[in-house]
Design brief:
The chain contains 3 helices and no strands. The protein is mainly α. Helix 2 packs antiparallel against helix 3. The N and C termini lie far apart (about 40 Å).
């Protein structure tokens, strides 16, 4: 597929916009903590499936601790940010 990167670059903001609209509507009825727990429980397994299928981005052995720290930091930051909203 010759323009795969360009296509994905255009689809990413579209997916983000749809997700923002859906989460905003869901946030009117569901508390932020419950919504984040559900979202993380749904997305985490999908992330690891995609990660396992992609051998190009696999970190080296010494990078696993930094990678785990980055994932934890992102999860905590997003959860706290949503709770403040």
């Amino acid at each position: 597929m010759p323009y795969r990167g360009e296509l994905l670059a255009l689809l990413a903001p579209l997916a983000w916009a749809v997700a923002v609209i859906l989460y905003r509507r869901a946030g009117e009825r569901v508390p932020p903590v419950a919504m984040n727990l559900f979202k993380n429980a749904l997305v985490t397994p999908l992330f690891f499936v995609c990660y396992a299928l992609s051998s190009e981005v696999a970190p080296q052995t010494g990078q696993l601790q930094a990678f785990a720290l980055l994932l934890t930091s992102g999860a905590v930051g997003i959860t706290l940010g949503a709770c403040r909203a």
